[in-house]
Amino acid sequence: MRLSEVAWGIDWRSRTAERTSGQTQTVFQALPRWVGDCGFNLSGRAAQRWRSIHWAARGRAGIYRLPMVDPLGVDLDALFNAGALNRVRTFSTGATFSTGAGFSPLPLVPAFEAAAAGAELVRVSVADPRLVPVVGQIISANDWPMGVTSVSDDGGGVYSLGVEMPLRAAISAGAPVSLVAVGLFEIDADDASATAYDLGRMMRPKIAFREVLNR
Are residues 149 and 55 in the same domain? Predict the structure, then answer.
């Protein structure tokens, strides 16, 4: 995900009609989903690896499990340099690798309590203040992305997060919530991740992703 540009958003999949009275009516014809328009700058081994992923996906047959890299929401480099990611996810005993690192490359926090599908509020426990979610951040649970619309400090390291879209699947207490959202996406055309490159061996694909809802 070496992005040169990115636009993540929610496609509410609505249609609006205007009546003769001047009033408008909005109808939601399908389930909303996350979409993303991404531009990449890839060279050398990274370009080769992307090309192999493109082949393996077989056009629109394959599903991409993507980290929704969003520097506006989370500066991963800053967190890493500050040491906030060194113990991101440990084994069940609390142990890490010999280097002191956990085995997830993305920052995670546990859900403080269970939340049902359709909930518009998720409560999380945050031990490191550098990992407290912020309004406008995109997070996820069980590979279902959601945007943070409000953050309330409940005390004791517990925070209540207002989210959009509402939860599409229930989460249990203690379940990991990824502070960099991860989702399941498909491309909108077989050649959407075209692998042409210039004489400098730089590949610059532009790809439109749309979330997979049938799981």
Answer: no
Mean predicted confidence (pLDDT) in 164-180: 95
- C-beta of residue 31 within 8 angstroms of C-beta of residue 213: yes
pLDDT bucket at 74, cuts 50 / 70 / 90: confident
Q: Is residue 20 part of a domain?
A: no
47 and 60 in a single domain? The answer is yes
Domain that holds residue 109: 71-180
- Mapping DSSP onto H, E and C, the string for the chain reads CCEEEEEEEEECCEEEEECCCCCEEEEECCCCEEEEEEEECEEHHHHHHHHHHHHHHCCCCCCEEEECCCCCCCCHHHHHHCCCCCCCCCCCCCCCCCCCCCCCCCCEEEECCCECCCCCEEEEECCCHHHCCCCCCEEEECCEEEEEEEEEEEECCEEEEEEECCCCCCECCCCEEECCCEEEEEECCCCCCCCCECCCCEECCEEEEEECCCC
Dihedral, CA of residue 113, residue 212, residue 118 and residue 114, to nearest 10: -10
The tens digit of pLDDT for each residue in 76-117 reads: 887 877 767 655 566 667 676 776 666 667 888 999 999 999
Pair 173, 191 in one domain: no
* 96 and 188 both lie in a single domain: no
Q: Could you tell me the CATH number of the domain that includes residue 85?
A: 2.40.10.170
